[in-house]
Structures are given as structure tokens and as C-alpha cells.
Amino acid sequence: MTRRPSRVPAALRRARFAPAVLEVLRRLDAAGHRSWLVGGAVRDLLLRRRRLDPADLDVATPARPEQVSALFEKVIPTGVEHGTVTVLGPGGVPVEVTTFRGEGAYLDGRRPSSVVFLSEVDEDLSRRDFTVNALAYDPLGGELRDPFGGQDDLRRRRLRAVGDPAARFAEDGLRPLRAARFAAQLGFALDPATRRAIRPALAVTAKVSAERVMAELSKLLLAAHPAAGLALLDATGLLEVVLPELAVRPPAARRHAYEVVRRAPRELPLRLAALLHVLPRGGDPAGGAEAAARARQLLVRMRFPGAVAELAAALAAAQGCVLAAPRPAAPRSPAEVRRFVAGVGRERLAPLLALWEADASAARPPARSRRELATLRALRARIARVERTRPPLTSAELALDGRAVMEALGLAPGREVGEALRHLLERALEDPGLNTAEALTSELRTWWARRPGRAAPGAPG
């Protein structure tokens, strides 16, 4: 059946595309290869999300990779076997160009066993995952191709698989995760048939590499509607594949975690910490090294970058959870506040308090949330008062450094120097007034003399 081109909406007609992208389209068109912008960029323009960065604009063409390469001076063969090359347009701007293609059987649940190059754009769109991504726009000819009703689904705020959803998900186990991610990014609901097709495909999703799962989960967590995406993972069984440690937590704990993620700042370590802060703490109820180590091990297994895993694990462990019983009391005295800030570290204090605020805001009933937020406001005020005095919170801020300790005690570099500095820091946290060279030297000599088998420096042996 011949399909008439869709009427071009104003959002596309008024869009201004990068000169490099238009030049690539013009040169392909002049050579007899009518080419199109496809996928998410067209979708986002129709949603008026204004995603016009050249890196987000994918060009689909009937030209074969060797034909594309012959038309441009600078071409990078980024994925020739799948029909993709990167053209360096004017100013060195990269533009990804992919030949229309069909795909053979998916034997590993992730990649097609073969690729067949095609000549029609609608055939290329038929292999896309969701109708809202199966859109193509030719800005030179002013034509929109929408063979699967993607515009209607955009109006209905609906995610619907192209063709048979069971077949789509059985082909590629990443697609169910993409469904949850798009739901989180766009705020769309899943079409019922598409939603029902996810659970039978869980075994296929389990074959997807940890790196790809991590990438999808990261995008979901940083989306505008992360709680909706997480709830979808939960309801479809995907959470058992992605994060089984969270899937076995009680439903109330999981729902609370999703709400804390929604309220947390849109930074990956903080949202990961919000997601994991409801995990059981074992024998480490106060959130020390054991809880952090368990969370870090989980995130490393999921292939999150080391720095992200380290910060997220530390924040989740230090935060605890408003659902915990009993919850550790907030520090009150100046000395307790100084030890708290020293233990957290100044660089991690702001994200920790932001996570605490998200946790308190998500508490239920509302009266409990108000109490938790009042406790947090009081702690912030106490921290501000303490910080105004700029007390020493690390060994580097002490009036004595390691060299001074060695000179005072006649020591060589070694473990005892570190022990001495830790003792002095503990005393300065208790009483910042001791942080002078004279007072710390006196404290140091007293501490050293009291150690078993040690005499004060200069004393007869």
C-alpha cells in the first residue's frame, strides 16, 4: 500500500538545523540519494524539546557506505559493517550517516546476525523499537514520514512498539529497558500490549551486557520522571534483572526509594545513593565502612565508573534511611557536629544534606516529613555556626604537620606518625582552641609518654 507523506507540523517547518547537517543532506540529495533525519531528534522536535545539536541528528540514506565515502573528503568508518560512517562536515562537525537497513535474526538477544541494506526509508523505520522513534524528516524536501502512527502516539503520550511487541523485545533484550528509560524521559505511559510483552522477554534482557544496562539505568535516573521509570522496572520484573538486591526489599521501601530519587538533585551519584539507601545495613546500622563497601561492590559489579560508585556508596551509607528504626540521632553539640562534618568531608557535605532532604521530604505521613525536615534545618544551622569558626576538620588543617610530629618525638616516617596526627585531630575536634603549635606539641608529648613502653622525648631511658 502506498502511504501519503504526513503533513509537516510547524515545529519541524520552523526548526533551524546545523549547516553541517544540511550540507550533508544536500550533497547526498544532489547525488541522487534522498536522505532523511531519523529517530529521536525528529521525535524531540515534534515535542518541542529543541534538540538540534548535530551530534543528536542521525542521517539515514539509501546510499551505501562506499557511496557516502566517495562524496565527502573526510569520512570515519565508525560502523561500516552496519552501514554507518561519520562524515566530518564544514568546520569538522561530525554527522553520522547510516544506510537504510534491515536486520537478520537476533541470535544473542542483542545484535542482529546480519544486516541487509535497503532502498526505502519506510523499510528502515520498520526495524525501530517504538513508533515515536520511527519517524523520518527531510528538511530539504519538507516531508515527514510516519508509517506507524508515531505522531498520534506522541499526542497520546504513549509508548508503543513498532509491529509485534513480543517479537521486538525477543529480538533485543535492551528494548524493554529502553521502554522504561523513555517512559522516564518523556513522561509517557506504555501501551498495554507493549507493557505485557516485557515480562516474557526478561530472559533475553538478562543477556544484555552490564555496561549497556548501566548506561540505560543512568539515563533513566537522570530523566525528568525517574520514579515512573523505576516503577515500570518494578512492575514488569525488569528490576529483578537489573538490581535484584533492591527487588527483594519490601514494596514500601522500594516505593520510598523511587520517591527519594525523584526528589534528589539530578546528579548520578546522588540519585544512585537515593536508590540504594533503603538496602539492608546488616550489622552496620549507623552507616559506616561496611555499608559503604557493600554498596560500592554492587555498583562496581554494575560497571558504574569508579568515582561515581565511590561517592554514591559513601552517600548512601552515611545517609541511612528515614524508614530505619531506630534512625541514628542527628549530631547536636558543637563537638558532635565537628566530628560529623569531619567524618563526611566538606566536599561531600552538601550532597549528603541534599540527599537527606530528599529522604525527609519523601517520608510519610506528612507529619513525620515535617519533623524530619525540621531536624535537618536545625542541623544545617548548627553546621553553619560551627563552620563560621573554621575549625580544623582534617589532619592537613592542624597546626602541626607530620614533619613537626617527627621532630617533636624523634620519629622516622611510619605508622606512628599517622597515629599521632589522628590523635591530635580528635583532640582538636573536641576543642578547636587546642589547634596551636604550642598546645598540640604539649598534647603530643603527653600522649606519647602515656603509650605503653614509651618515655617522653628527652627523658632518661
TrEMBL record:
Gene Ontology molecular function, alphabetical: metal ion binding; nucleotide binding; nucleotidyltransferase activity; tRNA binding
Lineage start: Bacteria, Pseudomonadati, Myxococcota, Myxococcia, Myxococcales
Keyword Magnesium set for record: yes
Domain of life: Bacteria
Cofactor: Mg(2+)
Protein name, as recorded: HDIG domain-containing protein
InterPro entries: Bact_CCA-adding_enz_type3_sf (IPR050264), NT_sf (IPR043519), PolA_pol_head_dom (IPR002646), PolyA_RNA-bd (IPR032828)
Record key words, sorted: Magnesium, Metal-binding, Nucleotide-binding, Nucleotidyltransferase, RNA-binding, Transferase, tRNA processing
